[in-house]
Amino acid sequence: MNLELEHIWSRVQSQLALLVDEPTYRIWLEPLRVVDLTDEHLLVEAPEHACRWIRERFGRVIQASVQLVLGPTASTEIIAIDRERAHVHRASTAPSTDQPLPNRSQREGPPAASSLQIGPLGNPKLTFDQFVIGDCNRLAHGAALAVAEMPSQAYNPLFIYGPPGVGKTHLLSAIANLLLTHNPGLTVRATTGEAFTNEFLAALSGKHTDAFKLRFRDVDVLLLDDVQFLERKTRTEEEFFHTFNALHDSARQIVVSSDRPPQDLGALEDRLRERFQAGLVADIKPPELPTRLAILRKRVQHDRIVIDDERTLTAIAERIPFNVRALEGALIRVVAFSSLTGRPLTHDLTCEVLDGLYPRDAAQPTRAQTIADIQAVVGQHFGLSTDELLSSSRSTRITWPRQLAMYLARELTAESLPAIGRHFGGRDHTTVLHACRRASTRIASDEACREAVDKLLRTLQPEHD
Q: pTM score, two decimals?
């Protein structure tokens, strides 16, 4: 496959991943392979056993995605995979979950971003130029750019954390892409916590640990996405600890991302968390409204989408406040709905599509002041002191109010599960998650519990109706 075709297909796959849910994409659409592009006619291969189903069930979605990338006159044909050619292709070019970047002397031509795989790497918009800067991510962006321009000289290690969908993988990918372009002599390895674990376990079972260590320790830059995946995986965590030390001691650059700050990775060993904290720790928060609008405008410009009514973008930005992936996904769904139905892309159409995906009441949840507020109100409602709520007592009189307070803390604040656990007597985040699940189940099945929750919400949030 030539680089231009690979680039086009990567963009189509990115659109598909936004238009359907993740399990559907993984099962049916990710296995698709592009074969040829002739005069805006894209030929796509599907597994033989599922080709007809994919053509009937997802043909229009695939066509809409191709037209978003190639233009409104593009067409798509889905055919069954040629088994013999597919076997040869897999034998010669099977991709791995992560790849070190060879030196320029080891490859021909300019480096390609698609040769490095970490999450959706290979997508051309995962660069610094395509990253929208706002108050929510300014520090993380600046640190990532400094690392990409001066690896091992700026911040080492760099630890980036934030909730899902706010741009952590984008920044790691941007670092990789910039290094590929401007520092071709460096050896870079980019992977995820899950891929690191799987490869390490495979090395253990195949007794190839020396080769594994060489792949990860003989590099200039290591980028690891979703390090929280290493929690409670003792042997993998130990291996990463030694890898981290080997790289850091030899002044190699390390960049790590997580959904939580180091102090909230309670299931990791202290020695590893301390090493994360020894470098620069930069957070990314959910984007504020101006940043969300800027993200949508940049996506519209990048994909050459024609938006006649600015209110369309404002409606999407106002409705989806927390997640960049959801924000871009909503835009693609609205555009696809307009394309598939032939209706003009208006503000009314946008609201119609969003009402089914992100109801107005759910889109802008109000927030309580603090966890302490919740504990005080819950304690007063049930006749308990805060000390009793935080105690280790398991009596029914205290257990249910404590579970309910944890549930409300998760629903009404932006605190992480580990942070909530710390506010409830230093409990583990799994305890908080269990409490939230128990409370949710009881609220759904017990009318008296629902009434109690409504009363508590009216106290905590006077505007709650």
A: 0.57
